[in-house]
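User: Here's a chain of 189 residues. Predict its fold as tokens.
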Amino acid sequence: MPKKILNVPEDVDLSTLQQTLEDLREEKEAISWEAPNRAFKTRDKDFWITAIAILVLVSVIFIFVKEFFLILVGLALLFYGYVVSTVPPERIRNKITNRGVYFGDSFHPWNELSRFWFGKSIDQRALFLETKLRFPPQISMILENVEEAKLKSILLKYLPLMEASPRFVDKASAWLGSKMPLEDRPKTK
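Assistant: Prediction complete.
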């Protein structure tokens, strides 16, 4: 008589249980795609003239208040924005498996992720994954040549779906960008 190792209820299908255990041992790729590692949009001359003008006006206020460090922070942010908008991102391979999500070379198991949603990141379709980590709190994957419906059906097996970004900063920056654009908007008819 074989020894009983696990205390499995009678109504559980042992073949399904065995298949689940095999799935846990072997990593299986559900979907993969190649895309830029971040959203990218080149900015025109008008954008930079407007951004520099705003920085100069704010810097004059900071000079009167003697906050010279904040002027340096503003210059650093402007320089960072310039570099990010002129240097194109590298292409990486994103992969979703039964064990977690690969974002380039970094791996995030399912127990580190809490939820997902689809949205736009600088005019590009993106998948956003919220993590339980302090850093990074959120992973954004650019979607190129990937069907959202297929991706959604795979991710729903592991994570709950949210319809919109839960971050206050995302909502505030979208509102500010719509009220005070730094570049010309395309005219709609």
